[in-house]
Write a structure and sequence with these properties.
The structure holds 2 protein chains of 2 kinds.
Chain A (H helix, E strand, L loop, with lengths): L3 E4 L2 E3 L6 E3 L1 H14 L4 E6 L6 H5 L5 E6 L7 H10 L4 E5 L11 H9 L3 E11 L2 E7 L5 E7 L2 E5 L11 H6 L1 E4 L8 H4 L2 E4 L14 H9 L7 E4 L3 H14 L4 E2 L6
Parallel strand pairs in A: 1-4, 1-6, 4-5, 5-11, 6-10, 7-10
Antiparallel strand pairs in A: 2-3, 7-8, 8-9
Helix pairs in contact in A: 3-4
Chain B lengths: L11 H16 L5 E2 L4 E3 L7 E6 L8 H15 L4 E6 L6 H4 L3 E4 L5 H15 L3 E5 L5 H12 L4 E7 L4 E5 L2 E5 L4 E4 L11 E2 L2 E3 L10 E7 L13 E5 L6 H11 L2 E4 L1 H5 L20 E5 L5 H6 L5 E6 L5 H5 L2 E4 L2 H15 E2 L1
Parallel strand pairs in B: 2-11, 3-4, 3-6, 4-5, 5-12, 6-10, 7-10, 14-15, 14-16, 16-17, 17-18
Antiparallel strand pairs in B: 1-2, 7-8, 8-9
The chains are: A alpha/beta, B alpha/beta.
């Protein structure tokens, strides 16, 4: 069985702003539990006293390793050192953190430091011998199959299955283990000018031209490029619709040239 | 008060815009070429380059791509630079979107594309590199490039100006000077309007790379489980549809997600999560096939962001017919089985 390690972070509820189990990280733990069962290793770089960490234990993980760091420390050196000391086959992480910088860069930097391939935005994972098969979520609900040889780093997207509920008894019973950490203050971040995010106005369509054009744009309904067939034969109508769908690359035609 | 009937009306806003445009073009040496109506701006000897990686999902510039090119334009015009656009397919109008140079490269997969971007950065040494922060396109490629270069990229940038950028970080926003690599959220800058740019072809660098992650192709999914808001192709029914088995068969044959107007959902023909419109779901599929839908304003609001609309309706004067890119004036009951038969015989994948 493959060794699986999941990197988790402290999330932030989008409405109340309270600390919570980060949604994408919980989905990553869910996928990790599917691959390695309760033997999945879960690692957090941050404050070991954070009560929310117990929520990950409540998903059925036996122990959680915390690399103790302050709020202004860069987690990357600690994570790289930990991964070098305890090599695993698959590193899972949520695509993007909910709190902190939330740049989604940590998995990429980790993969680069460890020299491993990275699979982005996984919605499902499956082990096939020494290869990992991943389902990548694409826009429009579509999926693409990817595969990579182990060891590999995987980021988990919102298309992954819903995480299981937290069991209170398991959350109490689980152990939090303190691991080694490398203090590395994030100097660049101190120079930033940080302010609470404000809601940005949605862009209004800018209309070039005079008052008349602006009035017309405000009152006119959106019109299509307009090809109209009046009372065609049903077969002919179906053929025209089909040709349009194929030409626009919406569906693939088994006979003709396709994209 | 005397009025002159033929005096042209003043438009202070347009005058202001023209003044600003004049200042910008004066700063950039400009042997402009005049075509019939549109001016093509040519920048022969730029001071620096802004590399923009254009995703163009399904071979068209998306609104997000245009915003990113608009941001690149802004950064280039600030000091006499030029925009170099790197795209992955040829059927794009990069000139109208604001690109001075166009590099069309073929690379499949995020690893190969990231390698190509890295080679382009090495060859052209752009001042800034811009990506659309979108999974799984530019967001993935940009982070790979940043990780390889060991640079701290600004992700989820919500505002771009010459003086500085604003990026979103969790519940906060951060102001900083524009870094080398930026991943832009939608609407971070306005798209380019008015002047055309040259989009002079530039050869892409040659990169050979054995990807470590293999693409094994698309996976068939059950379209009926896809939420309407995410769906790619929607077949929607209105009161003009009476033959429901034929409708479901058509959706299955096309691999499309089913939707409906308020009337058919209220009548119980479709579940309420399938309702399209102001009181249902606002949808953004690549194509919307409306069967027997007249097009109430509330319904048209729901499909306001659809790129392509195909309508089948018996009423030539229905609003949906005016909205449609392809309109068929016929009974949906007759067209549905014919289209379903065609799709069952011909559809691949």
């Amino acid at each position: 069985m493959a060794e699986v390690c999941v990197l988790v972070s402290i999330g932030r509820h989008p409405v109340s702003g309270r600390a919570r189990r980060a949604d994408l990280d919980a989905r990553a733990v869910e996928l990790g539990l599917g691959l390695a069962g309760t033997l999945v290793r879960v690692v957090h770089a941050g404050d070991p006293a954070e009560p929310v960490l117990r929520d990950y234990l409540g998903m059925g993980v036996a122990a959680l390793t915390v690399l103790p760091l302050g709020p202004d420390d860069d987690p990357l050196p600690s994570l790289v050192a930990y991964m070098r000391a305890h090599p695993v086959d698959i590193v899972l992480a949520g695509q993007c953190a909910e709190a902190g910088e939330g740049s989604g860069l940590v998995p990429y930097l980790l993969a680069e430091a460890l020299g491993r391939p990275l699979v982005a935005g996984a919605a499902g994972l499956e082990l096939d011998g020494s290869r990992l098969r991943a389902l990548q979520a694409l826009p429009g609900g579509r999926r693409r199959a990817l595969s990579a040889a182990l060891p590999v780093v995987v980021t988990v997207g919102a298309g992954a299955p819903e995480p299981r509920a937290v069991a209170y008894a398991r959350a109490r019973r689980g152990r939090i283990v303190i691991g080694p950490s490398v203090a590395s203050p994030d100097e660049a971040r101190r120079s930033w000018h940080v302010a609470p995010a404000r809601r940005r106005p949605k862009r209004l369509k800018a209309v070039v031209g005079g008052a008349e054009e602006r009035l017309a744009a405000a009152t006119r309904m959106a019109t299509g490029t307009g090809r109209t067939l009046v009372n065609p034969d049903p077969a002919a109508a179906a053929q025209v619709i089909w040709d349009y769908l194929v030409a626009e690359g919406i569906v693939a035609d088994a006979l003709g040239a396709t994209s | 008060m005397t009025t002159e009937p033929n005096r042209p009306r003043r438009d202070p806003r347009a005058e202001r815009a023209a003044r600003v445009a004049g200042q910008v073009t004066a700063a950039v040496s400009e042997p402009a070429q005049f075509s019939a109506a549109v001016i093509t701006r040519v920048i022969d000897d730029p001071g620096y380059l802004i590399l923009t990686v254009v995703d163009a999902p399904d071979r068209r510039l998306s609104a997000h791509d245009r915003d990113v090119l608009g941001a690149a334009r802004k950064l280039a015009d600030a000091g006499g630079g030029a925009v170099l656009a790197l795209a992955w397919s040829e059927t794009l109008d990069l000139g109208a979107a604001g690109a001075d140079r166009a590099m069309i490269a073929t690379a499949d997969g995020a690893e190969a594309r990231a390698a190509l971007v890295l080679a382009a950065i090495e060859r052209h040494t752009p001042r800034h590199v811009l990506f659309a922060d979108r999974a799984p396109g530019g967001g993935d490629i940009g982070r790979r490039v940043a990780a390889r270069l060991g640079e701290r990229a600004a992700t989820n940038v919500v505002e771009v100006a010459q003086t500085g950028i604003v990026r979103r970080a969790g519940a906060h926003e951060v102001r900083l000077a524009p870094p080398h690599i930026m991943l832009l959220a939608p609407e971070a800058a306005d798209p380019v309007t008015g002047a055309r740019h040259e989009a002079r072809p530039v050869d892409p660098p040659d990169v050979t790379l054995t990807p470590r992650v293999q693409d094994e192709g698309p996976v068939a999914i059950d379209a009926s489980t896809v939420p309407l808001a995410e769906a790619d192709l929607i077949v929607a029914a209105g009161t003009g549809v009476t033959d429901w088995p034929a409708f479901h068969r058509l959706a299955m044959a096309l691999g499309a997600t089913e939707g409906g107007s308020r009337a058919v959902v209220d009548a119980g023909h479709l579940p309420s999560d399938r309702q399209v419109g102001a009181s249902g779901t606002l949808v953004e599929p690549r194509c919307y096939l409306a069967l027997g839908i007249a097009g109430a304003p509330q319904h048209l609001q729901g499909i306001a962001h659809c790129e392509r609309v195909v309508a089948v309706n018996t009423d030539l004067h229905a609003d949906m017919i005016k909205r449609a890119d392809l309109a068929i004036i016929a009974d949906a009951q007759a067209v549905m089985p014919a289209l379903a038969r065609l799709a069952e015989a011909r559809r691949r994948g």
